[in-house]
Amino acid sequence: MFINYKVMDYKKEMIGITGVGVKILNIEDMLGSFKNKYKYDVYFVGQNGEITLFSKELNKRGNIAKIEGLKEIKGAIFKGGQTQFEYKDKDNEYLLNTKYIEKLKLYLFVEINKKEYIGEPKKTFYANLAISLLVTILVSSIR
């Protein structure tokens, strides 16, 4: 993927062009790291609704017009006013933030599956509760 950028001087006159090239595999790995570290799915969607850049772990493919939940909010996403959404598919609920990136001509989607995101703190809470109950029982049995 190549991104070119015009370099302007103080008078807003172009003095040159610079660019950077990034391997798509590196981008896919970086997007996958968001899922591993933070439980976020991060992906890019074109103006036609086609998912173009995504991690290998993302379970969504193709056009968002064909994805349950996303197809209902597609129009609102591409109008550009609202950037935060909640939607459901048959199994899960999601929180979605979107932002249009002018330089890439792509929409950035950052999505959280509520069950996955809340699941870890629940496990930690129940583990802490069990440990504290065990400690309470042990302390109260000592006389």
Shape: elongated
CATH class: Alpha Beta
**Structural class by secondary-structure content:** alpha+beta
- CATH homologous superfamily classification: PAS domain
Low-confidence stretches: none
Calculate the terminal CA-CA distance, rounded to whole Å. Answer: 70 Å
How many domain regions?
Answer: 1
Say what the CATH topology is: Beta-Lactamase
Could you give the order of the helices and strands?
EEHEEHEEEH
CATH architecture: 2-Layer Sandwich
Rounded Rg: 22 Å
Our count of helices gives 3
State mean pLDDT (0 to 100 scale). 83
Numbering strands along the chain, what is their spatial order in the largest sheet? 4-3-7-6-5
Number of strands: 7
**Share of β-strand residues:** 25-35%
Helix percentage range: 25-40%
Protein described:
- This protein has a single domain, classed as Beta-Lactamase (2-Layer Sandwich).
- With 143 residues, the chain is of the alpha+beta class.
- The protein has 3 helices and 7 strands; from the N terminus they run ββαββαβββα.
- It has a 5-stranded antiparallel beta sheet. A two-stranded antiparallel sheet has the order 1-2.
Structure at a glance:
With 143 residues, the chain is α+β, with helices and mostly antiparallel strands.
What are its keywords?
143 residues, alpha+beta, Beta-Lactamase, five-stranded antiparallel sheet, two-stranded antiparallel ribbon, 7 strands, 37% helix
